[in-house]
Amino acid sequence: MLTGRSGLAVIEAKVAAGLLPRDRSGMMWVGAGSGKACDGCEHSITQDQREYEFDAPGWPTTRLHQDCLELWQAAWLKRESGLSHETTSSCPPNSAARIATLLRDAFPAGYCVDCLAATKLSRLQSAA
Question: Considering the entire predicted model, what is its pTM?
Fold first, then answer.
């Protein structure tokens, strides 16, 4: 599961890259994890965890851990309120879009979300 600022950066980058939907429909289902991968962090949602599912228009079913859902919702609220990741952190302008472009271009076969989050966290800590 993703958490904190680094997790939010990953979710924002995935939304910017078109790997997660920007919005969801009104219906959301919650239940025990099915063992399928979380669309936020890409780790399995185990039976002892809650799985949140929704069908965004034009998307396959999106599955998220509770923490990943909360990060996705925080990213949505920031977009809706006109705030961006760049205005609330020390990252350079358009960083979420640049991260998304770099990921898409540099890793066309995919990337490790844990590695991405660890890299982002270490950069945030060194900037502080």
Answer: 0.60
